[in-house]
Amino acid sequence: MSWDVIRVVAITFVVAGHVTGGAALIPDIEPYPVSLRVPFGTFTLLVLSGYFMGPTLRKLRPGRWLHSRLARVLPAYLVAMLVTFLVLRIVAPVFNGEEEGPWYLPGAGDLVRNLLLVHEWTGNMHRRIDASYWTLPVQVAAFCGVALLCWYWRRRWRHRLQPAVVVWGVIGVSAASPVLSGVAQVVPTATGLYFAHLFAAGAAIWLWSQRRLAGPNLAAVLAAVLGMQLFRSSEPQWLIVACLGAMLGLMCLAARGPDWDRVLGLLRRPISWLAGISFGIYLVHQKLGYVVARVLTGMEIEPWWLRMALVLTAIVLAAWALTVLVERPLYRLLGPSAQPAPAAGVRPADIADIADVADVTDATEVTGTGDRSRDSAGDGAHDAPDDTPGDGVVRTRG
């Protein structure tokens, strides 16, 4: 239950930032009197994804593991993206009216780029089907990179390099990635290298939980990761980094401490249920949530808390439908046919991928997307909500 709690907290802050804060940036959506924009949720989901790469890779060949990851993430993303595209094609002209309005009308080019997961290469955050989808190419790049690294490790490096060396190497690559902006500004973020340290942090926590990484080394890794997050924005975002640090601390407690069901036992079922649909929540909450908010504003639904409750209800119901009707059945259809027995000490729930970005994901917590907190960004033609990547690689994403 510990990991479900962490995932639910992360996806809650992602959704809250967009529903209460991001929607206020869209001119024709009535803002709420409360706003909770502390963008660290998506970063947390990426760290979770890095953590659970460890137990899932232990018993699977790299190719089979990659197959499993892609079968879990891509079908739900593609369906959610196509639905969002079609909805925007219908409602954007209505919302904008005769004049050019704030709602971006995606075209065939946007659809193709999102299908091929190259939408981050445009560098234009004001023209997106859904700005939260920045985490999907990052996730897929991480999956491919880890599978390749694991394959090579098992053949060449197993007896030459300690896992800690690999973790620090990944952090070093991430730290140096802004240099690639000299080739093209979007290269560090579009390739996912800019966020590799978050996956490394998750892997380090897992290695520590298996007694394969010393405590001081883990502390140094997490300090380095938080330091990179702090200084990757034009102004240090102390609150965001402090919240991310608190989440990393909770992950360490969950990794080597007792399960939290003794404290939160009465909430086990709702928490587990929300965690199970968290990837779907990540995929549908932002742009489709804005559409629902815009419709309710047009209907003059009052008071504000009723509008917010209806938006959140619509998001949860859509996420549940996406999970039950798309993600789970297509994973059973497209995923690996046989499941190996879990290793000793690894819970079956972990092997079943408690945490993808998206299993979030979540995408996911995607996912969808932790946290790129930017100085500014864009969703559609608006300033981007917190965890939408900005045009500059020096911005914090979350």
UniProtKB/TrEMBL annotation:
Residues 371-385 have a biased composition (Basic and acidic residues). GO terms for biological process: polysaccharide biosynthetic process. One of its GO terms (molecular function) is acyltransferase activity, transferring groups other than amino-acyl groups. Residues 3-323 form the Acyltransferase domain. InterPro entries: Acyl_transf_3_dom, Acyltransferase_3. The keyword Ligase does not apply. One of its GO terms (cellular component) is membrane. Keywords: Membrane, Transmembrane, Transmembrane helix. It comes from the Bacteria. Pfam families: Acyl_transf_3. This is Peptidoglycan/LPS O-acetylase OafA/YrhL. It comes from Prauserella isguenensis. The lineage of its organism: Bacteria, Bacillati, Actinomycetota, Actinomycetes, Pseudonocardiales.
